[in-house]
Structures are given as structure tokens and as C-alpha cells.
Amino acid sequence: MNKSKRPYKQYSLHRGDCLSFLKTLTSNSIDSIVTDPPGGLSFMGIDWDSDRGGRDRWIKWLTKRLTEAYRVLKPGGHLVMWTYPRTSHWTRMALDDSGLVFVHNLIHVFGTGKSHGKIVKSTDSPEFNGFSTTLKTSYEEWVLVRKPSEGTVERNLKKWKVGALNVDACAVEGAPGQPSRFPGTLVHDGSVEALQIFPDAPGQLARLRGDGAPMMNHVYGKMNHGTVAKPPRVDTDPSSARFFYCTKASRSDKNGGLPDGETNCHPTVKSIALMRWLCRLVTPPGGTVLDMFMGSGSTGVAAMLEGFRFLGCELSAEYYATAKKRITHAWASCMRLTRPSAFVTLKSSH
Ligand SMILES: C[S@@+](CC[C@H](N)C(=O)[O-])C[C@H]1O[C@@H](n2cnc3c(N)ncnc32)[C@H](O)[C@@H]1O
């Protein structure tokens, strides 16, 4: 069998720089990429998060890897990438330079953020006491981009099985008796802080125009997207329920799958529920998810629980070892719950 075409097992993990790893993959072979790269912030002073000598150098570093990611993605394939607000424009530049096309910014709002700013306590200018140099971080952004499709979306889907988002599988559950909702670009953690952001006032087209009056297209003139408004919606929670709900990573998210007494020491573990939702959104059923900045393996755990194949790469030996344990455990628990034949059984290489 042609080596490049040889199927891999349900998951395949690699250690090293993802640039070398990506170069080993066949062009147009990956269905989706869901990844959480360094942010160039020197977060907690960690080496792998340094800015590599400044903005331009950092962007060049990431662009090199994203150019390879572009090559291995199937035409129409999506990539979702975490960014930090302060350097999200760097990440966006690298995504742009690699040829990937912007689709959405997905915003994850949470109440657990902290202010890292300095609170003024001054005897010289007591009128400024209590002022702060920053606000509390309340959200993170995930950028959703796409490799251009070949021809129409329909043609691309037929040939490559990618090119559109699986919105049905990611619909937000409605209140009892109510239809589920089309997923939006906002995700929240259900905390009091996040819920306060949502006003109780009506905010949906259906509710605002629920009088049956014709919709006038004052701004876009000839755009003809319907003439009669939908009936008003009955919501039990009109403010926030229409957004996907997802907390930040919990202790069980972080340590699940590790032997008793062992803890996940990765400083930026992502929530499994969020990673499952993102993988499901951008990956066709049974498809292959790639995370080239795998860390402790949250994307891989999510991919296993969703029945996808997974390819992961991580630079650090310590994080790689943790990822391997977590992903193996997730895979094994799926095997216990599911008919093994439902998965592709392939020779283990690890
Ligand atoms: C933000 S963390 C990912 C955390 C992960 N989402 C989790 O839940 O554990 C980014 C990871 O990228 C890794 N990394 C940095 N440079 C890399 C490179 N060139 N190739 C592969 N991995 C790299 C770091 O060691 C770090 O673990």
C-alpha cells in the first residue's frame, strides 16, 4: 500500500515541532483543524509562549506553520484557532498570510477572568486610589477560517465532504417544546457575570418583527430575504438561552483520564465541552481533526468522544505524555460504550 495513503488508527500522536510534522502529511488530506496555539504573550513566563523577538517575527513563525496547515487541509476545510485579545490581530495576520479565508470570530464569554492590572494606592494623589490599569478579561476569541472551496459549495461537498458547517449538530437546545436554535458566534459560561451582559429586552428578529408587518429593506434596497416576519417566539429565558452554554475547563476536564493522584500541569487547558462543540461544527461525521499545538490533548479527547479520528502534535515531552494518557483513556471509554466495529481499527504505532 502507498505509504502516504496508509490509514492511521483512530488517533495518532506526534512529538516535536509541528512544522516538521505537517510536512509529512499528504496535501488535501485533513477534514478540519481545531487548535490552540501559543499567543505570544509570555504567559506566566513560559518559553513556548514567547513573542519570538517581536510582532513581525512571531507572525512569520506562525505563518510558516499555517501555510503547511493550509496545504494539508482539504479544499473547503475549516480551521478554528484560539487567540488572545491582546495579540489576536497577530494571529489573524498569520492566518491571512497563509491564504486561509476569514469566516467568523467566535466569542467565548466567561465570568472567571481576572484583572492583571495595577490598582492605584497613592498617598500623593489619593483621588486616584482605586483606579486600575486594566479591566477584567471576560472573553476569548476563536477565529474560524476556511480554505477556499473548489467551485460551488455543493460541488466541493460532494468531492471533499467539507466546505460547510454542521449547524444542525451544533444547534442550541431550545426550552421544552421549543425548537432548537441556529448556533451563533457567541458562547457563554452561564455565570452571573456573563448573564448580566444579556439584556432581557427582545433581541431577535422574530420577536422584534412579530406583528406580521412586511419587512422593509430600507438599507439594502433590493435584497429580498422575505416579506413577512416570523411569528414571535416564546422564550422561557429570553436573554441568554439562545447561545451555546459552556464553562471554562473544570478540574475533571483537566485531570480526566489520568491515573489516580496525577494532575494535568498544563497551564492553559481548554474545556472539553467547548472543544467537542468546535470539532463537531467543523468536521464531517467520521472525519479527521488535526491539532498541531496539542498541549495536554483536550482537542484529542473531544475528537474521540465525538467519534472523529485525531492527529495531534506537541513540542513538550511532558505535555505529550499527559495528552497520550488523556486521549487513550477517552478512546478506551468510547470503545467500552460503543461497538468496536463502529470505529476504524488500525494497527497501533505508539
Ligand atoms: C496553548 S497550549 C495548548 C493547550 C491545549 N489546548 C490543552 O488543552 O492542553 C499550546 C501548546 O503548543 C505547544 N507548542 C508550542 N510550539 C510548538 C510547535 N512548534 N510545535 C508543536 N507544539 C508547539 C506548547 O508546548 C503548548 O503545549
What is the class of the largest domain in the CATH system?
Alpha Beta
Cα radius of gyration in angstroms: 22 Å
Low-confidence stretches: 1-7, 201-236, 339-350
Give the strand order, joined by hyphens, for the main sheet: 1-9-8-2-3-5-4-6-7
Largest sheet: 9 strands, mixed
Cα distance spanning the termini: 20 Å
Q: Roughly what is the average pLDDT, rounded to an integer?
A: 82
The CATH H-level homologous superfamily of the largest domain:
Vaccinia Virus protein VP39
Order of helices and strands: EHEHEHEEHEHHEHHEHEH
Secondary-structure content class: alpha/beta
CATH architecture group name of the largest domain: 3-Layer(aba) Sandwich
Domains (count):
2
Bound molecules: S-adenosylmethionine
Q: What is the number of helical segments per DSSP (H or I, 4+ residues)?
A: 10
The third-level CATH topology of the largest domain is Rossmann fold
As a percent range, the share of helical residues equals 25-40%
Total strand segments: 9
Shape: globular
Strand content: 15-25%
